[in-house]
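Saturday, quiet lab. Running sequence design on the structure tokens for the scaffold JK sent over.
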């Protein structure tokens, strides 16, 4: 995303345009599935001193506004990506933490329905496949 588009995106989401928000959006666009630590480092590279708390606040605001999607992983750091509203899922390597996108199965949310919905109206399905990536499989075989 070009910087101007990020300015528009913030305005459309009703957020004030600030340097840390713009920097965070640029970093997340550049590093898909980055964790908060990496984003903090890169935002600091761009802006100089920014507190860790300030970056967390920015991530929180961007996620709440729907500009950024937060991928919460059990026992691992959350990752962030620009919301593309394409309902894609993720596959995670349990060994090294590599994460890749899996396209939505049918193209719109929810792309899979639960066998029992308990009377809920289902809006989306967020799926994380767990496995071992090719590099880690090769490393395991070489041992
Ligand atoms: Zn791996
Ligand atoms: Zn993704």
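Result came back. Writing it out in full:
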């Amino acid at each position: 995303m070009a910087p101007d588009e990020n300015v528009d995106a913030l305005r459309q989401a009703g957020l004030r345009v600030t340097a840390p928000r713009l920097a965070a959006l640029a970093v997340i666009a550049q590093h898909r599935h980055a964790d908060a630590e990496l984003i903090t480092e890169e935002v600091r590279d761009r802006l100089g001193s920014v507190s860790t708390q300030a970056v967390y606040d920015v991530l929180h605001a961007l996620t709440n506004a729907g500009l950024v999607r937060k991928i919460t992983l059990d026992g691992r750091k959350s990752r962030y990506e620009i919301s593309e509203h394409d309902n894609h899922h993720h596959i995670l390597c349990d060994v090294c933490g590599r994460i890749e996108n899996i396209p939505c199965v049918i193209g719109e949310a929810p792309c899979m329905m639960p066998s029992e919905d308990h009377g809920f109206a289902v809006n989306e399905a967020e799926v994380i496949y767990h496995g071992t990536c090719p590099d880690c499989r090769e490393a395991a075989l070489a041992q």
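Notes for JK: The chain has a mean pLDDT of 91. The pocket of zinc ion (ligand 1) is lined by residues 93, 95-96, 98, 133, 135-136 (CB under 6 Å). Ask whether to fix the surface positions before the next round.
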